[in-house]
Amino acid sequence: MTSLLVQPTAATPAPATTSRRGRGGALASLLRNRKATVGLAIFLVFCVLAAVPQLFTSVRDPNALSFVPSQQPSGAHWLGTTALGQDIWAQLVYGARQSLVIALVAGLCATVLSVLIGVSAAYLGGVADEALSMLTNVFLVIPTFPLIIVLATYAGKGTLLVVLIVLVVTGWSYGANQLRAQALSMRNRDFLESARVRGERRSYIIVFEVLPTMTSLILANFLGAALYSVLTAAGLQFLGLGDPNSISWGTMLYWSQSQQALQTGMPLWAIAPGACVALLGVSFALMNYAFDEISNPALRPVRRNRARRTHS
Q: Where is the region Disordered (predicted)?
C-alpha cells in the first residue's frame, strides 16, 4: 500500500519537465533554422542602422545640399553624391528608420485589426460573423493597389500618418480571413467548451484560450503584413504619393527616377535603396518561412544526415 501511494506523488513533476523541454526545443529549432538566422541577422543590421545612424556616417543632415553634385563613389562619399549635392550613403543610412517604422507599425496595426475581426467573427457567429465576413470579403475582392493610390491621393498625400493608415486599411483582410478559418476549426474544442461551462466571459475565452493556440499563425500574419507594408510603402513613395522631403528608401527612389540617375551615370542612387528595400523584404520573408517550418514539421526539409545514417 505504501508503494502504491508514493508512486503518484513522484510522477507529478513530469508535465512541467515536458513543457520546459517543449519550449526549449522550439527555441533550439528556431536558432538552428538557417532561414530564421539569416532573416533575423539582416533585420538586426537594419535596426542598428535605424537606431544609431550617427555611428555609420558623419553627415548630420542627409537632406543638406553640402557637397559637389554628381560625384562618383570615393573615400569621402562611399556611394557618391546625388545630382543635388547630397551624400547617398548618408541618405541610405538615415532612410532605414522610416522604412522600419512603416514596416513594424503598419504590420502590427494590420495584424491587430486582423485578429479583432477574424477571431471575433469566428467565435461570435450569427449576424456578427456574417457582417464581419462580408466586410472582409469586400476588401479581399477590391483591387488593392488602385485602392491604395486613390486613398493616398484623396486622404492628403505627404504625411507618414496617411501612408500608415492606407497600409493598415488595405492590409488586414487577408490575415483576418486566415484567422477566422483557424478559429472556426477550434470553436467546438473541449477546452473552449469547459471554459463556457465554467462561466467565463467571451472576451476572456478569446484572449486567454483562443489566441494563445494561434500564436504561430498570428506571428506569420504579422511578418506577412510587414513585408506587404515595406514593398507597398516603397511603391507609393516611388510614385510621389509620400512626402518627397522625408528620408526613406522610397523617396530616394523617387528622386533618383525624377533626376534620371540611371541615364546620367549615377546608378547607385537608384540601386542602393532598391537593394535595401529588397533585403528588408527578404528578411521578413525568410523569418516567415522559418516559422512555418517550425510550426509545421511537414514543411521542414529532409536532412542528408538521416540518409547517411540509414546507409551506414
A: 1-22
Q: What is the pLDDT of residues 124-182, one digit of tens each?
A: 888 989 999 999 999 888 888 788 888 777 766 557 888 888 899 889 999 999 999 98
Strand, helix or coil for residue 47: helix
- The secondary structure element, H or E, covering residue 51 is helix 34-51
Measure CA of the first residue to CA of the last residue in the chain; give whole Å: 50
CA of 102: how far to CAs of 23, 26, 110, 173, in Å?
31, 29, 11, 18
pLDDT by residue (tens digit) across 278-294? 999 999 999 888 877 77
Report angle CA 270, 56, 225 to the nearest 5 degrees.
60
Residues 251, 240, 161, 223, CA torsion sign: negative
Location of C-alpha cell 517604422: 101
